[in-house]
Amino acid sequence: MNSKKKAKKIKLFPIFNGLLFFMICLFIIVPLWKVFVDSIDLQTSYGMRLWPKEFGLVGYKVILTYESLYKPFLISCITTIAGTFLGLTLSTLGAYVLIQYEMPGRNIFSFLLLFTMIFEGGMVPSFLVMSKLGLTDTLFAVILPLGINVYNLVLMRNFFEGIPKGLFEAASIDGCSPMGTFFKIVLPLSKAALASIGLMFSVTFWNDYTNFKIYIQKSSLYNFQQKLRNLIMDGDTPNTSEHISQNTMFSAAVMVAILPFMIIYPFCQKYFVKGVNIGAIKE
Amino acid sequence: MSIKRGQKVPGSKAPLSLRIYNHRWFYVMFAPVLVFIALFNYLPMYFIKYAFYDYKMAQEPVFVGLKHFEKLLKKQDFIRAFVNTFELSIVKLLLNTFMAVIISLLLNEIKNLQAKKAVQTLIYLPHFMSWVVTASVFRLILSPSNEGLVNSFLVNLGVINKDQMIYFLAEEKWWRPVYYIVNIWKDTGWGTIIYLATLSGISPDLYEAAQIDGANRWNQMLFITLPSLANTIIVVLILNLAKIMNLFESVFVMYNSAVYKTSDVIQTFVYRQTFGGGIPNYGFTTAVGLMKSVVGCILVLVCNYASKKVRGRGIV
């Protein structure tokens, strides 16, 4: 009797678990799915419909031909590419120097970096620095401050520490300069780390809203996030002759903001996870 | 490590000047990093001095001592923002951690690897969407009209009438629950990564031994899995507690003037006072930010101490 009961219990659990995960997945996907469906549905009064009643891409047409969205999209691309490049440069350089245990002053450098994680000037002093440097309302203000990310730098350093010391010694015996070692040995060996940390930087820059909100007042320098926000929250809507509801238009705008990422996401997901795990090994 | 042929290997015994000379290229390589943190991290710290000044952009700063601090400690809005910051951050942190642990435990029980991978891919996804996009998605589905999914659903269930649509993001009693749920939606999946790594690191021998001793699955979870996870959970909580004062963007994109009472946090308060129109007194808002930074600093140091006690290694 007892053993029979046990056998039944073990069989029941996977079913229960499967159902539960089905529901968790629904919880994640339904909000996104609903927005997607609304973006291709031309009938108003959407309600609970999870399938379009009258299929049409007019929403996308309105959004993609809305001229004041081109430039924000371009600005987002520029800041993402420049920022990712800058972020990777600074974190690899910093990480490479921080693994030179014999270098005088290494501890001071580490401390200077880590102290920024403990204490910060805050939003207003940072804004004052930017405005005194004359960088507000330029793209430098949104690219430069995010270029140093101490957490990413530490991840990079942890990765570099895994490179066998013998390689550095061999390189220097063969007459390789520190810079040569950096470019010819360290970087080629760290492709996985570069990919994962580069991806993290690019997501940060692509999604940046706060820095734009603080440092950029000129609407000609808005990025896509800022524009999307204005569109949906402040009703800064495009004039159009097409008869579509606001909901369709907004949904299409949200999809334009996330679709590119959702398409590449399944391919680069493993790099993100790898990046987190590089941190987890030493953390 | 530039060692010229025939030269002594520069260890800690070599004279300092020689060691510095040998590492000269490394200093050059580190210079850009130093310039960046000097400009964007340390220069703002110097500007904290304005917390003790009256400072409006066009005028010369006037030294006023502790005036701003006296003012803000009497200011009801500030106290409210301060309390809200703690409440929102801590409840969010506990809820997210709890959900992440539960989901990791259950995910670990899925034996079909492909299904597991698929679920993981899906639940990590919202983490990469910006807060603006997240807020937009939820604004659309929570919309208080018959276009909103949630309100239509409630009407169809008969919970509410058509004329009593709920303004989820503009009612004080609803804003916080919605905020917590959106946070769970966005970050719980991502939070499971670290627990899953711990779970996959538990030796299978332990489970085998427990089985021989007659432990069923529930007992195995209670006496093997959970204790192994406990350390990771504590570390994650400590690391995140240090950051609770930094709440900004998630609140900023979801709140509005109707719900300041339950949603305003220090950073949004500073933002509104500084950039919300009118001539800002940078001195006052710097003082508010300084209070936040000091409390944040104390939290980091306390958490660092706790982390050293728990895992023998600090945060910073």
Automatic annotation (TrEMBL), chain A:
Classification via CDD domains: TM_PBP2
Entry's Gene Ontology cellular component terms: plasma membrane
Location(s) in or outside the cell:
Cell membrane
Query: Where is each ABC transmembrane type-1 domain found?
Result: 69-267
Membrane topology of this protein: Multi-pass membrane protein
Q: Which InterPro entries match?
A: MetI-like (IPR000515), MetI-like_sf (IPR035906)
Q: What is its main location?
A: membrane
Gene3D superfamilies reported for this sequence: MetI-like (1.10.3720.10)
Q: Which family does it belong to?
A: Belongs to the binding-protein-dependent transport system permease family.
- Could you identify this protein by its name? Binding-protein-dependent transport systems inner membrane component
Automatic annotation (TrEMBL), chain B:
User: GO CC terms on record?
Assistant: plasma membrane
Alphabetical UniProt keywords? Cell membrane, Membrane, Transmembrane, Transmembrane helix, Transport
| Membrane-spanning segments | 25-48, 90-110, 122-142, 189-210, 222-242, 282-303
Q: Where in the cell is it found?
A: Cell membrane
What are the residue boundaries of the ABC transmembrane type-1 domain, all occurrences included?
82-303
- A Gene Ontology biological process annotation? transmembrane transport
Q: What's one Pfam family the UniProt record gives for this protein?
A: BPD_transp_1
InterPro entries in the record:
ABC_transporter_permease (IPR051393), MetI-like (IPR000515), MetI-like_sf (IPR035906)
What's the domain of life for this entry?
Bacteria
State the membrane topology: Multi-pass membrane protein
Report the PROSITE patterns cross-referenced here: ABC_TM1
- What family is it from? Belongs to the binding-protein-dependent transport system permease family.
> Per its record, how is this protein called by name?
Binding-protein-dependent transport systems inner membrane component
Q: To which species is this protein native?
A: Lachnoclostridium phytofermentans (strain ATCC 700394 / DSM 18823 / ISDg)
